[in-house]
Amino acid sequence: MGPGSPLHPMIAFSLALFTLAIWLTLVFARGNFWQARETDDLLTPFEAGAAPAPRVTAIMPARDEADVIARSVTSLLGQNCGCAFDVVVVDDQSADGTADVARRAAETIGAAHRLTVLRSEDPPPGWTGKLNAMRAGLAFVEKRPGDLPDYILFTDADIEHAPDVLARLVGGAERDGLALVSLMAQLACVSRAERWLVPAFIYFFDMLYPFAWVNDPKRRAAAAAGGCMLVRRAALHRAGGLDVIRDALIDDCALGAAMKRVGPIFLGLTSRVRSLRPYPHFSDIRRMVVRSAYTELRHSPLRLAGATLGMAVTFVAPPLLAGHPDPATGLAALAAYALMALSYRPMLRRYRLRAWRALFLPAVALTYMVFTLESALAYARGRGGAWKGRYQAAAESAGR
Q: What is the pTM of this model?
């Protein structure tokens, strides 16, 4: 910020000190979120014969996923866990043959007897489409003859699981008595848009919900990642079932919060669970963020203003003030900028990207700020929560 800066020198210095205080707090007093150490390597795989093998059923909501569901179903049915395990795909009124593709995938590997395909009805008032499909799958599982499963694995149709994922999930839940075990799927990071924006998406999520705090029973922080959530069925009922989150657009974090009220939970990073959903263009990531960003702020204009100001001060102000002619101001801002960049390096390393990209985190943060503002605008226009032909966060705004 040059000599013509409109900021009074004392205001600029105070702002620089404030940004430095923010980054010192984030780096040293925010659960070490930036180190990305909470991973599935902390989960001890379940070993067959070590204890009575629990029963597990995977429930997979799917809406127009014919392009990816074969890989997802095949990876699930190929789990090496030593548990009784089956998969229920709930076809959420797909128009692209999703159900048939799933059946053929199971038949190809000789596992058709462990796959059930249902078709869900229109979601009733107050339910999102995905949660309604999850509810339909759970209702089917609990009414069918035979022993009830001990665990339910909620997963998405665009997720591919390594063969040992279920063993790790069950092993962690059994060893530590967890009510929920969730893994943050590794997102695709191939296109230019993905390389710039995807690592930051996970970084910001971890900053908002520090995984170490989520995994600490003594802290209130709670979250989950919807692509891979193993829940103890009895604990889910104690939490009130899926009904308590029926209208949640960010259903995974809502489920994490509900489950933590009845028992300890675990959330970790992983490279064993991978998203099959590509984001080849910036507009693809933009739509993903716009869908739910304003919901994260509880549709509050005040929270939106606070979040926008907070992001600007935290991420944008340090590089702008780093070139201030006053040495003290410039040094404080430069220190904040350095802490920011250093804190981003572990996530970049996780996605096998060069460290120099950390210098551009302010620009990435500014991009996400714009997406968030657009999310609020979509909600105000009655088009919030857009997902495959449904506007799931539009009712309240439309009535205004």
A: 0.91
